[in-house]
Amino acid sequence: MECFKIYCGGDFIETPLTLFVSNPYDGKDFAQTWLAEEEELKFASDKAKEAFAKMKLMAAYEKSEALNFIASEISKNEERFASLIAQEAAKPWKYALAEARRAVQTFKVAAEEAKRLPMEYIRLDWAVEGKGREGLVKYFPIGPVAGISPFNFPLNLAAHKIAPALAAGCPIVLKPASTTPLATLELAKIIDKTEFPKGSYSVLPMKRNIGDLIVTSDDFKLLTFTGSSEVGWKMKARAGKKKVVLELGGNAGTIVSQSSDISHAVSRCVVGGFAYQGQICIHAQRIFVHKDVFETFCEQFIPLVKKLNYGHPLSHDTEITAMIDESNAKRVEDWVNEAQNDGAKLLCGGKRNGAYYEPTVLTNVTPDMNVSCQEIFGPVVTLQPYESFEEAVNQVNNTNYGLQAGIFTNNIKELDYAFNNIEVGGLIHNDVPVFRTDHMPYGGIKDSGIGREGIKYAIHDMMEPKILVK
Amino acid sequence: MECFKIYCGGDFIETPLTLFVSNPYDGKDFAQTWLAEEEELKFASDKAKEAFAKMKLMAAYEKSEALNFIASEISKNEERFASLIAQEAAKPWKYALAEARRAVQTFKVAAEEAKRLPMEYIRLDWAVEGKGREGLVKYFPIGPVAGISPFNFPLNLAAHKIAPALAAGCPIVLKPASTTPLATLELAKIIDKTEFPKGSYSVLPMKRNIGDLIVTSDDFKLLTFTGSSEVGWKMKARAGKKKVVLELGGNAGTIVSQSSDISHAVSRCVVGGFAYQGQICIHAQRIFVHKDVFETFCEQFIPLVKKLNYGHPLSHDTEITAMIDESNAKRVEDWVNEAQNDGAKLLCGGKRNGAYYEPTVLTNVTPDMNVSCQEIFGPVVTLQPYESFEEAVNQVNNTNYGLQAGIFTNNIKELDYAFNNIEVGGLIHNDVPVFRTDHMPYGGIKDSGIGREGIKYAIHDMMEPKILVK
Amino acid sequence: MECFKIYCGGDFIETPLTLFVSNPYDGKDFAQTWLAEEEELKFASDKAKEAFAKMKLMAAYEKSEALNFIASEISKNEERFASLIAQEAAKPWKYALAEARRAVQTFKVAAEEAKRLPMEYIRLDWAVEGKGREGLVKYFPIGPVAGISPFNFPLNLAAHKIAPALAAGCPIVLKPASTTPLATLELAKIIDKTEFPKGSYSVLPMKRNIGDLIVTSDDFKLLTFTGSSEVGWKMKARAGKKKVVLELGGNAGTIVSQSSDISHAVSRCVVGGFAYQGQICIHAQRIFVHKDVFETFCEQFIPLVKKLNYGHPLSHDTEITAMIDESNAKRVEDWVNEAQNDGAKLLCGGKRNGAYYEPTVLTNVTPDMNVSCQEIFGPVVTLQPYESFEEAVNQVNNTNYGLQAGIFTNNIKELDYAFNNIEVGGLIHNDVPVFRTDHMPYGGIKDSGIGREGIKYAIHDMMEPKILVK
Amino acid sequence: MECFKIYCGGDFIETPLTLFVSNPYDGKDFAQTWLAEEEELKFASDKAKEAFAKMKLMAAYEKSEALNFIASEISKNEERFASLIAQEAAKPWKYALAEARRAVQTFKVAAEEAKRLPMEYIRLDWAVEGKGREGLVKYFPIGPVAGISPFNFPLNLAAHKIAPALAAGCPIVLKPASTTPLATLELAKIIDKTEFPKGSYSVLPMKRNIGDLIVTSDDFKLLTFTGSSEVGWKMKARAGKKKVVLELGGNAGTIVSQSSDISHAVSRCVVGGFAYQGQICIHAQRIFVHKDVFETFCEQFIPLVKKLNYGHPLSHDTEITAMIDESNAKRVEDWVNEAQNDGAKLLCGGKRNGAYYEPTVLTNVTPDMNVSCQEIFGPVVTLQPYESFEEAVNQVNNTNYGLQAGIFTNNIKELDYAFNNIEVGGLIHNDVPVFRTDHMPYGGIKDSGIGREGIKYAIHDMMEPKILVK
């Protein structure tokens, strides 16, 4: 069984506590690593502070070259990374490979942004007091960053914290999800070879009680968390003087207008609804289709859903596989059953086998059902017809979440109305809400979070402006 | 008869050459001013250089307050300005008043932009040679500016040169159209009261031979000309080392798609086609209507054109009046007659009476007719049906000009296609090409000019970057 | 006695709880207003939500004109505002008048920024997934804002919350300091006359228990607080899902290098040290002078401090007057006495009379004395000689605070070193730390706060980006 | 003898006219290529237009990857490029290698800028007419570009035209200097392998009469020329409707203040004065040293100049070698002799041997001598003492040129004064005027040119804004 030492303040180490990593598809352990305790966290924090003093002095091209090296090494080893991701997260191969490639892009973008850290130069002579005065506003890195990343994108959602931190000049201590620590540990081997000083990056799998210390510690100037809403908002209250960025959950809505290309909408909704078993924050959970095309939509959609190919995550033609664990699959099963008991109609799927839950489509759902108002984080999609466009927008908004939404339309007024009125961080035209490029601003409103990722935007939160009045 | 002294290097003066200003509607002289000769031009240029040394040192708030004062005084005297414009240019009162109000806005925007002159601060450490280096890029005013403005917007098209020059810190010597010098001379009385140093603004009516000296003189660092294409491009070749900005003619196209609101399109096209007798560079000269709605469009459009109210420019309900002079009216008459001889069909209008030419609509025109390929600069509109949207776009592009265009559609694909493919400086959605706000970038491509106005954009051409490598 | 009704959800009202406002100089009540309770807060919050729906739809020019109207009305009534400020805050007339004028500037800047709310348009085709895609990033107002403002700038520090909120399109409920509610209530009379909908602005004096409800309420999307560090950081933990901006205290350091113009440094330090009795967050509390010029500095400084003219705040030649209350004067007295007991040497001042504390200068202080490490918020300055520039910078940084600092030098290396190494939000070259213009980014790091004010920067926190992927 | 086919519209071809390329050091031909005539120019122009239609549709990442490939291939073959440059231009090896490396950087920067082409999104509702309106300002490539590049940086000054053109989406036809065509022909072999369509890049050595056709042709939308002032300004008048960017000559001034580090200044001035035999537009031709340190400066400077190592350009320790041709060496000889006749004093150098002219230092020069007021473009430096800093600035400005200047000082007031008053495009602090990084804005004022290079800035001139009013 392959062993991955944890990466702590620049050293690859073992600790007294072993952690086994299993493949959710078959439940078998396939790798081993270790859990950090308070001592390791302290060491990593101290080294981060030492690293910070050096990182502040790195030239743009030095950071940029190191980040490009990381991108290049991930690229060269994309199959290695995809294999780790596929196994630890039960992610079908093609999605795992796509994630590895996205991480390449994430580091490449960071390599460019490292040269373009924000700076302003402004006139101060807008009133007599400022006559003869100008202001240079430089942004300085804030200091060590604490990152907590989720299981569903073990590499790229961590990369969205690591890459901007390194670009900004901030060391980062990362707590990966305990179920999926391998991709970020593999990444450590690459970062260790760069010119970033020891301590710039630590990746420490840990139990929640140690994770709590990260949240409350004064050693970090920013806490950036991607995970569930429930956990995230509690952290905000306990974070002390730190800045906090939260990338939380969603139950994204998608509107399919009668003016759209229905076949295109259908094929994108299959991907948006069932990619990685729906375990994506911007999974197309709730689809609203204009009544005139609802039947057509269903007729095309259901057969495609039924055809999704179940298999081992490492198999190249697998389209759907097990969920992250059986307890989550059971939760999904319960919610679907509840919904059916309350009047929802099952169009396909609905059965569970261990950690596997069939791709499932429901209709006749009401906004208060868990399958609708909660983040399902599983392979379940609801389909509802709508009469007026305004009604569809209201339904999309009828939730506590507000991450992303999709809209299929060819009508200018509908698109404008949607953009002005849908309460989300991102609206995707003619595609499903899962669309994301790694340099765009990404994040939610309402219960879906606070702050934005996307390299430039993440960097902004990791820097502090200082004005020189000249 | 009211006399307007010319404003030369900070002095209101008379010269040996008088210039009478007449109302094109009745041909009667109603005011008198004077023509500058080489001596006055030299004096104004010298004073401009002196003023430049002082303007460079003005604080942002000082320029801003002076520009706000100008805006405020024009606003207080908007009827006075409208009256001068209406008479010297034969502009119907409501359009003359609108122009005065736009000039207020032009100076207000400049008052803000004076505080926001461009500045950049950039990292230079993108490669090892730049390690430890940063760059401050400050934009400095280039020096005295020469402006030449046309008859059709005697105040606001001059304001689009004067306001950015003053905001940037550049003195300006303006040659107004000889037929319409009064609005800018009236403006001089206001500018004279501000803190801008004497010589910051001169307005010198002059004959073309003196105007030529402005074009070739080394005293100016920028020539900004609004007028005909024929004249403009010749100036470019003779301008020496100066920068040159040319705002020239057009024969703007408008597309009316079957997906649009036809009544709205019709009512806007009446304004776009006949406001100020079509003597506007972005006049809606060529209208292309989808064949399915062409008949409907014509049925609504022609009666409205016929109803346009002819009268004295000072009358508040006049909608159409005389052209700038009889020779232009004859030119328009000739072109319309030629077109009819070559197969065009007259839908209304077509008669001339002195300098007045009836609002005229033609169809069955071909792209090579003068009414189509030339800038008509008169109250004539051509209407053509189209079959495919691509064809309509090709027709809009089938000309040497490229200033603005309008498109009425509710179809996202049509709008995207139009924006990517129509060769113009500005495309107006759901309105006619005459739309312009005073802070937007405005100007043409192809034979329609080089450079952009719109305060911020005009200022940019009036400044020169200087980098301090620190 | 003049009565000021409180302004709640668009109505001027009285409540059962009266609040008397006294002049700290003589302790006499000179005005009366009322305290809001939970009911009024609820009403104001509800009206704010209603107003928000309307404010979102206001055009830029509508908000801009309304903000310019407010600026203009404050300007016309600057003596009225100065008189209220002088009395309620015991602020010498010239400083009170300056504050009124700064508030004019604050609203003027907001009037401009209302037209320039952030928007981005970005290419998304940086990787193959984004081919053909572009992103429009529009910033939308976040919703109702809760503001809490301090006693020391009753008008302008409130204006720094009100003006950006209105410009952004966010209604604001303001809790002024209970001791100084009048300036913001007077302001309400002006805002009430504008086109901003009822509920856009409420100003509610209230006891701390009601203020607590503002902090924890879900009705507000942002809490912006200016006040003490102790109170501020506690609020952050209790603010729920809200964004939080904290503008807290400081004990600003100033360095006087041997390369500087000493006379200039001295005269600015007198102002920076004793303006408004030192009750300013960026008061020049700690002055470090190079040892070669320390004696000269002291010889010039002390006589000027001694000459500061004590008197009634409304008297035009008063330079120093009573502190905000006797308890604060006693606190200052205690800290100075403690310092002397621990070895500090009194160069002048040191006596208290009721709420008045003499302008006081200490030397021989150590960093751990309260007069040095705490925010004194009173008329006390410490003077220390330094040997090396690095040492001076270390001393400036030797505190938990980090708001602003001043540096007098003519040496490029010293200035660069200082800017890169002094831990503050703003460094003022050749002036004292109290320098601030109303459009510059302003705020602290370390314990001095989180976030920045300065209209554009404050607006940024009041808006939420939404991307349209096209 | 190695043969280099010319690269015309995507094909490597020969023509009836051969061109031999010689090494100026020994006068021997070492390579052969061909001259294009009108026919080839026409073919290249036509292919450029075809390529343009395809380049407009390339995604950012496609252009970016192709540009990165170019950078990477130059880097892999840096010695090959250095060898060609060293021989065709008689450039000492270390400078030739540095140029190859700079070209790598130039293409890398372009690869990034290709993703960041300018776009703006602006509110138009600043006045009532714009209510509900917003504007998308997209910048589109203008079309085929004509580039003319000089002998002194055969690769990188061409790269500064090619790289931004390709990044912007504009095809480019380049006329290299006839003496130094090889580096750009070698580059063609790389560009030919990329995804840029055939016709995107042509490199055509040609006689001046064919070059003239490029200048006047309507096939190009921009002419970008780097070369002599005399030739450049004439082109501007004959360029028709094209935009024109001119990067012309200079006689850069450098100031050495008594507050500076003299040894540092001396060593940099040796490089700035004699690198590549002074054949650099920003060569440190005129050095002004404060009188108090003038003697010290001379004592350190002259010995270092005398020690410059003469040799073959391919030798790695050569510091100085032959000029580009004997006629230029004779011109330099004449000017130095003239200056001596008119009273200048020779501190070292002054002799010619064929195309080699010794590193020469003069003092006692007057501003009207050719060695001072003309661009010497040879290994000659003048040294003058100054009394006051203002006088030094005046002397730097006492010329028709205005490209870059250097200033060695540690005094803030001197630096500020210099930046505000020296009339140049770039001022380098604590270094010589030859400093340039490839992404900074670079270009001159006065007779030194119009427009700026530096990738982002060059791209800006190659694009045309189009606004969509929505």
Structure, described:
4 copies of one chain form a homotetramer. Chain A is an alpha/beta fold. Chain A has 2 domains: 2-248 and 448-469, Aldehyde Dehydrogenase, Chain A, domain 1; 253-437, Aldehyde Dehydrogenase, Chain A, domain 2 (3-Layer(aba) Sandwich). Chain A is 39% helix and 22% strand. Chain A has helices at 38-55, 60-76, 78-89, 93-113, 156-168, 182-191, 208-216, 229-237, 262-274, 291-306, 326-341, 370-373, 389-397, 412-421, 455-461, and strands at 2-3, 6-8, 11-13, 17-23, 28-35, 119-123, 134-141, 145-148, 172-175, 201-203, 222-226, 243-247, 253-256, 286-290, 345-348, 352-353, 356-357, 360-363, 380-386, 404-408, 426-429, 449-450, 463-469. A 7-stranded mixed beta sheet of chain A has the order 15-18-19-14-13-20-21, with helices on both faces. Chain A has a 6-stranded mixed beta sheet with strand order 10-9-8-11-12-22, sandwiched between helices. In chain A, helix 3 crosses helix 4, helix 4 runs parallel beside helix 5 and helix 9 packs across helix 10. The N and C termini of chain A lie far apart (62 Å). The relative contact order of chain A is 0.14. The model of chain A has no long low-confidence stretch (mean pLDDT 98). At the B-D interface, helix 4, strand 7, helix 8, strand 21 and strand 23 of B face helix 4, strand 7, helix 8, strand 21 and strand 23 of D. Strand 23 of chain B pairs parallel with strand 21 (426-429) of chain D.
